[in-house]
């Protein structure tokens, strides 16, 4: 059994603490929310751990993560290890690792997949960093990952940055998968021949080529709301899809599906599209085609 | 100077009659609208023309055109020539041609481009049919097409059907061109660095690689409404884009730009997207991500 | 236990016969291949079955299926039932059903998913037709579908045609899913930070959002050939993806992901792209940009 | 008449010097190539100009431009003006402007469009910077831009960076336009009904909705090589398309057409696609579908 400091006890971190404790590990958690935190500050968290320490950071990517890492660079000691398990951009990892290395502190970046289901199912993990640091954290990884062969729910993707890179690509793929199911769903809904769309989708769960965990989630959603009309077709994106596309651009990799999925989300959030106003205006200009005036 | 029967005096046909008459040709027009028609019926129109007759049909594609052709197959005589100048699907042409051929009547299919500007600028023409029939109608084509070298505003694309095929592809390209400008317009609008979007677009009219007639029309539109916010971003499609994509499928030709332009129009007309509801539902299922409830 | 005539004993039909017999059903198979057939002709097959008969047709879609259905319309008797389990276009089903109905023979269309794995795993089934005909064939469906709750591997999608429609959309989704994984794979391969691509993908099998049966198949493929470089990136398409896109067009449903996946297959089979030659030519014309001459 | 230092006498800069001199301006050019340069060094170029100087930099974007600007920041004097007319990324402009401002030197960024045709036709110009600096350079702009109203070939797009931003979007649009024509061309070639593709395209030059300068260039190319089969369908990209897509991502602007055009170029340069290998492998895994082995 190992000891772990865990910073960030939101939807993900909270559940991870539960899963780790259920596996018999000692977790000292910190969160700004006094209702869930175990300690009053990062200093207290560090004091509560025996050296060499392992600290897992699970806070929003970007500035929040960078700031926590900077604080820890002043609190941790030679031989300690910090793991960024958030959805940081892989380009942040080298910076974080170098900052911590200057204090003799190790660094791992770990992509964590599985959402709210991870507490019970386990989390898929992709890690970046040195073999030695990976080995130190392996008891933690083994507790967080799903049961079954380790290599089916955990990978050591490469050096620092590779874990977040793999998670970024994972999420880009996820965008594409979701959009593929979504287009199929819309077409089934639009058709007047398929009488019972939710039953068709439910029936895809076993034996078919398209069976997947996302499909099961779609079945759950349709069980609750068979036409999904309690929902707006308004979809956020949280960064990894954009980064995946930027990396595709940087590497000259065609990514028509991932980009289409991302753009569909962008479009879903627009009340008005300037682009489509321009197309409407052009049609009107050359053909005298009717247009919809605003407010009609 | 030649004599022409012209059926269909809407936006296109009406202007074509003007242009043909201005060129000195005799045009006998027929339209259901008594305010614009020259004759009371197709029978009267046929009677008013000297054999061998040339009749130009300029009515909506599909059923209306097929019906007019069927009526003319009973009214025209051996040696006469019927021209379908509407936006018919090329697959209709062979059927029309065979029906008329059984009565000894010739057939040409002609794609006509240029919209409401054609009256003054002339119309771009793409014709399908036999050399002999093309030759009979050439004075008409020469009057309708823009000034300048014939081959820059008129083509004999091939046998019956080729004219509408060429026009179909023309319109598919047109969809792509419009969407390309539209995306650029939206990005300029979204940027906070370009201070004056209409001026930038106006300044592209001379010397640049993107200069075109469509660009000039966009400049006109922006002159009238600099942010295009009098318009809804709601865009119809009239068939040729769909047919182009279907032909791309039939010929295994990748058409990512033309399809993207068509789908953007489809999406522009949706108040709610079932697909994006499905994506929102999936995100909610796996991540507990917030969703917008309908009506929020 | 029921009795079934099964026509077409190729990769799919052969395995289905095995699975049905293993479940205790009596199967009389027919195939042109004398090594696998149980009977010498369709007539013999019909004679070998007790009325009311059930015949399952599992031959290539299009002309072959239409022809077999036409032959059976002369061989089967009132009260018999024919099931088309091939990948027919849904528009064929109404024609088949009406032809057979004129002889008092029932008709079901059934989409069958699962490929070569179906023999052991069971096949996902989507059926179209009347409740009464579905009920007659249910013992067959129960033997073919995977174990577990019936509704997770079988659906009655709607009236005649709905089964093949659902299968068509299933395959359209499948195209999108495969392309999403494929783009992610290519990006991981292109990156110089991810050291071990097959391990990353293997590690996605448990706990992650992207886990699926297709992902497991990708793992199998990478186990055999870690960089997939024994293969050409040349991908056929077998019709359903095209039909899905055509239905999307007919229903004005945006399908950017499914179309992108289809076009990627088209492009994969081109040695030379006329389109990209045109782009190269245009760049050369305006910019004097270097081009590759053919054969360089 | 004004005096201008011009650095970079490649395809673009060489022609611009010609055009400026033809308009009566004094141009002192510098290039590393001794055959075209007027001076031996940047120092000599600066010495040859009377203060306040105007220097136009026309070298490859990125490091080469940044380096020249850095050198000029040590050579120019308060009141001088430097213009970057290359295809720099707009994000470089603020950095350049601040460096020069620290020495009292003004800065303009100017997007220049028109390619090798600009010498005779004039160049389309998009400028970013202060009104005062724009006014100083206006005689240069007036000489470089096409004849006709200034606002149709020149725009002051906004503050520093806006010129290159507008040019970037211009090029993104250009990618989309080219791909639209290219897809249409390929479909016409693939069709067996259109007998003469080059004639059809030639006939689109007058009167049609798709007429444009790019279309005229396509006609030139087809005049030289009617099936474009002297060329490989291999297309480079030079940065602006990528940047446009990245800006679309940053601004959550859907850009399906521009991205499709960019990805088509990426794909055109791949001998083998890892993505399509993965799709082929997946089809083989689930369906036993035939694959092409490498080298077949």
UniProtKB/TrEMBL annotation, chains A, B, C, D:
Protein name: 6-phosphogluconate dehydrogenase
Keyword flag Oxidoreductase: yes
Family: Belongs to the 6-phosphogluconate dehydrogenase family.
GO molecular function terms attached to this record: NADP binding; phosphogluconate dehydrogenase (decarboxylating) activity
Domain (6-phosphogluconate dehydrogenase C-terminal): residue spans on this chain: 163-296
Protein source organism: Amycolatopsis marina
GO biological process, one term: D-gluconate metabolic process
Record flagged with keyword Oxidoreductase: yes
Alphabetic keyword roster: Gluconate utilization, Oxidoreductase
